[in-house]
Each structure stands twice: as structure tokens, then as C-alpha cells.
Prior knowledge:
The protein has one helix spanning about 150-155, and strands at about 15-20, 35-40, 55-65, 75-80, 85-90, 100-115, 115-120, 130-135.
Amino acid sequence: METEPVAEQIVMTPIAHIISDITEVTDDYWGGTEAIIRIDDERFTSESLVGLEDFSHLEVVFHFHLTDKNDLHFGARPARNNPAWPATGYFAHRNMRKINWIGVSRCRLIKIDGMDLHVAELDAVDGTPVLDVKPWFPEFGPRGEVRSATWATEMLSDYFAPTDNAASAE
């Protein structure tokens, strides 16, 4: 017996915002970038960060707040509209054109200063609302053989390449 999907809304409140010199969305060249995840100090205290300094990397869940909400593609299409790459479906993409506009990124924790988490190579721009920050546990990493599509490896070859525009947050 099939049931009709229920339209369900989930309301989320950002726990932090990104402070970065990078203000425009870019597809590549995140290498060497630094940013600050500024935790909302009206709801959280320094106690919420106790122990986080023991981790080298964080997993950050954020909202793609600058995305055109009408720019959704549910069908198969080539990544970055590159005709050299195969058309792949909605769930084979990790871009911002997703119905909930949620991004997930792993970054390196440089230091904690008060309620500011200084991070490297977080691929989110200035003002990005952060929905959650989790320490990266290597034990949660992939188990077994890891494989990726050739087009994805090719597409991401410059993703973390350094650029002259790589800037540190002030």
C-alpha cells in the first residue's frame, strides 16, 4: 500500500555564522582559506566548547543562504553544466541546488578564541548561517573500499587548490 508523502516543515535556528573575507560563492580554490565560526553567545557559553580543542577537524552543517531558491534541478544533468561529464541525478550532486539548501563541510580547527572557532578550508562564505558543528571522529569515516566517479575527481581537482584570493578572516 502506497501512502502520499506528507509535506513536513522543519524549522532550524542557526547556532553560529561564518566570518570570512570570501563574500562570493565560488566552485574552487578553497585551499589556504581561513574563516571564523562565531558561535551565538546569547544562547551558548564557553562551556559548550569545552573539549573541542582536542579535535583537529570539525564537520560543519550550514545553510546555503545565497542560493537562488528557484534554481533547483531534480533531474539528471552534468555537474557544473559541463557537457564533458555525464548527466547524473539529483542525489549524485553535492552542490547548493538542493531543496533544503544544506551544506556539509569538513575543515581544520586552528584555534578557539572565546566563542570564535578559527578554521581552515571551510567552503562557506561570509554570513553563512551555521546549523551545527561536530568534531570529526575518524571512526565515523568511510569503512571499506572508497570509490568515486571519474568526473567528480576531475571536477574537484582544484577545489582545495590555493589561490591568490585565499584570505584570512579578520
